[in-house]
Amino acid sequence: MAVKNFSSRVQICGRGAKCHGGHSAVEQSSYISRTTMYCEYDGQTYYPKYSEDLVGTGVLLPENSPEEYRDPSVLWNAVEKNEKSSDAQLARTVRFELPNEWTYELAKDVVKSFCQREFVDKGMCCQYAIHDSENKDTGQRNLHVHILLTMRGIDENGRWLPKQKKVYLTDENGERIPLIDKKTGQQKVDKQNRKQWKCQTIQTNDWSRRENAKIWRKDFVDTINAVNERIGKTENFWEHRSFKEQGLDIEPQVHLGEKAAALERAGVRTIKGNINREIIANNAIILKAREAYEQAKEELKAVRAIPVKVAVAIRNEIIDVIRAVAQRNHGRLSLPIMKGKYIGSISDRSSLQDKDMMEAYVQRKGWTTFEEMQAERKMMQADHSSLVTDITNRTARMDYLENLLAMYEKYEPYQKINAEYWKLKKAEETNKGKGGFLGFAKKSMAQEYKIQHQTELNTYKMHRGALKDMIEEPDKKITPVSWKKELAELSETQKTAKKSATSMVVDLARMEVLSHNRRDLERMLENESHQKNIERTRKQALE
Hints:
Blueprint: E1 2-5, E2 8-14, H1 25-33, E3 37-38, E4 45-46, E5 54-60, H2 72-82, E6 89-97, H3 104-118, E7 126-134, E8 141-150, E9 164-168, E10 199-203, H4 212-231, E11 236-239, H5 258-265, H6 271-282, H7 290-305, H8 317-328, H9 350-353, H10 355-365, H11 370-433, H12 445-452, H13 454-470, H14 480-542
Parallel strand pairs: 1-11
Antiparallel strand pairs: 2-6, 3-4, 5-7, 6-8, 7-8, 9-10
Helix pairs in contact: 1-2, 8-10, 8-14, 11-12, 11-13, 11-14
């Protein structure tokens, strides 16, 4: 098991120079959600610079929050409007790394659950945005989440609470302590001649404690490890402690920031970039995602070992597109992260970008044209849609049976008590028919049993009525044996169906990527043609 050192960042977004998490909450929201937003405070419209890496975004609100705050533009403009100071702290920004092996659906579920538990349940408004970016040089994917948190709580009327409040100090008798002027020995007064008392300012919440960053970091890493263990991805153990806390003489990289990162992407070396390059060289003993890289190499070997019949004489337009895109895109295909319908369900998304793997896939399928691929894709989408409908209906039936059996578990103990009561009562009636007589003063065993178990017998009637109400079949029969049998059969059928659906999703994701790269290549060729025309015009003008 390899140790994966967790990357995180917690900063303050504010108007002051010391705030390193941005200077506008609206701008930060626009950046992480990849959405154009207008800020009413500074009158600026913020345009997102990237969009294709957005996996999902959303707003989670605590109790008493105005419903319109679900729109991030409304929420963060309200925050900006409420803060009057020129150096006000507006929001807290958090960036956490996510396992690249996670599907988008799993990442969304885990992030929403964590944000609800750690932030929203404590009174913060929270916006999250999950990105799946790519290092253009190495091809390493970077699944991560940005979280934007409010600094103020909200009262029962939906109004912002103060961040801090003044508390008067008191003596042993509970009396306020006067603020004494050292020169006069008298109690100080203000300009309105009001007496001054000793006081201190306290925070109205504990959200700004310095130790919170470490607590959130540890809790998130613990969540990652727990989820990975549950889904069987235990190749990496995620470590929340810093290199220093682990006793490692290794230096972490510095955060580039938006401007430096943009310059580095454009091929311009920056001071921060140079620092990181030096750090990377010094920390060569740590190779990021080494285990994943080695595993990918083994998978590629396995794919290459599959005998593939290549029709040399027949041109394959799909493979031509793969090679042309890879030639222009650092040897890889691109992913339709926002527009893709199926790739979000794939954990190993880097394999969808691998040129050799995708070529081998096309050859195994025997396609030579996109028309052939699209015909199979159309049929598979219909089959997948039908299969998903069957799975959904089967899941509903299984839930129904599980609920019946859960109710029957509550009902069964009391049913036995009721059966014993009627057994005694029936025996007495039989005995009475044979001439037996108890007398007026003496109570029967059935009556005694009923008195002793009156609560259980009443509970039996209640559970029986509830169970009958749950049964949808017209006969309303309580048949736990047949319910269990049907549930077992449905579970086996469901496993097979889900396996088939998963296989279809992998195929559909691959076809989705191939279609996307075909369109992407058309765009690239159009740009190249346009550039050639410009250069030709310039040459003609010079001649």
